[in-house]
Hints:
Layout: H1 5-17, E1 41-45, E2 48-52, E3 61-68, E4 75-84, E5 89-96, E6 107-109, E7 122-124, E8 127-134, H2 136-144, E9 148-154, E10 160-166, H3 170-184, H4 190-195
Antiparallel strand pairs: 1-2, 2-3, 3-4, 4-5, 5-8, 6-9, 7-8, 9-10
Helix pairs in contact: 2-3
Amino acid sequence: MMMSSRFVSCAASAAAGLVLSAGVALAQAPAAAPARPGAPDVKMVGDWAVRCFPISSPSPCDMYEEMADKNTRQRILAISVAYVPSVDRNGIVISVPLEVSIPKGLTIQTDNFTSPVLKYRRCDRNGCYVEMPMDAASIASLSKSGPDAHIKIAADGGKEFSLRFSLNGFASAYDQMVQLAKAKAKPLPKENEAAQ
Length: 196
């Protein structure tokens, strides 16, 4: 497993934005936000990296897994799950390669769980991204699933692909990430709390 430095450096802002579509305001005050966060504290739990970033944020920690092509070392799939203690909500960011069918979205599939179709929020030169809230029932289902899971995507031409990822350590990594997030999170600014 290889961590992309671009993905790591953007993880804090992605975690801050991943729950925005549900109306949860996580943006930091512009004057206090650092230009680039420092290196995170990382602990491996099974196949998942539990990361906490040295930033002032309502969601400073996530759990992360990345799959890269063995030959090119190019990222094929990256998954980040974060928890926002102040609103008791989870968010997920999934990164897949470019040239996917945007209207078809993607699904997560395990031995006992199939997500609804998850829509892409944006694409850039590094890939296309699902960024959205994730309900507690989905987290619980992933925690109880077997070790093999897949992200099902479709290419622009209609061909379907299955990108494998591991759930080895998912439940323990999630529990540890939530505990760390609760210990390290900074509350939402007052103006954002009023908007809730």
